[in-house]
Design brief:
This protein is of the alpha+beta class and 118 residues long. It has a single domain, classed as Alpha-Beta Plaits (2-Layer Sandwich), CATH 3.30.70. The protein contains 4 helices and 3 strands. It has a 3-stranded antiparallel β-sheet with strand order 1-3-2. The relative contact order is 0.16.
Length: 118
């Protein structure tokens, strides 16, 4: 009888450990979020470089892909460290529109002529 109880305790303990491990793994996944940001004011490859640099300057950004043809960025970031508004703010301070947030006027005025909207 004692052997059966001990076996049951071991099985229950292992099951609880597996649940805790799975929960820890799912919490890690939930910390990262991927968003798309519309970049309608981008005009050239220099814009792509500046927008990429601006996004990468935000602490917590894990991955950035900027597509000139589609005029958008796909950004993966750690939700414990940053958020969508902070990323948009970095883009606008670089002189570019980000979703519905307009570019900072002074930053836009300082862009090269090829980077400005026609």
């Amino acid at each position: 009888m004692k052997r059966n109880n001990l076996s049951a305790i071991v099985i229950i303990t292992l099951a609880m450990l597996m649940v805790n491990i799975n929960n820890a793994d799912s919490n890690e996944v939930q910390k990262s979020k991927t968003i798309t940001i519309e970049l309608n004011s981008m005009q050239c490859d220099m814009c792509v470089e500046k927008v990429t640099d601006a996004i990468n300057s935000v602490e917590g950004v894990e991955k950035v892909s900027v597509d000139l043809d589609k005029k958008r960025a796909t950004v993966t970031y750690d939700t414990d460290i940053t958020n969508k508004k902070a990323i948009e703010k970095a883009i606008t301070l670089a002189g570019y529109d980000a979703n519905k947030a307009p570019a900072d006027k002074e930053a836009y005025d300082n862009l090269s002529s090829c980077c400005k909207k026609p």
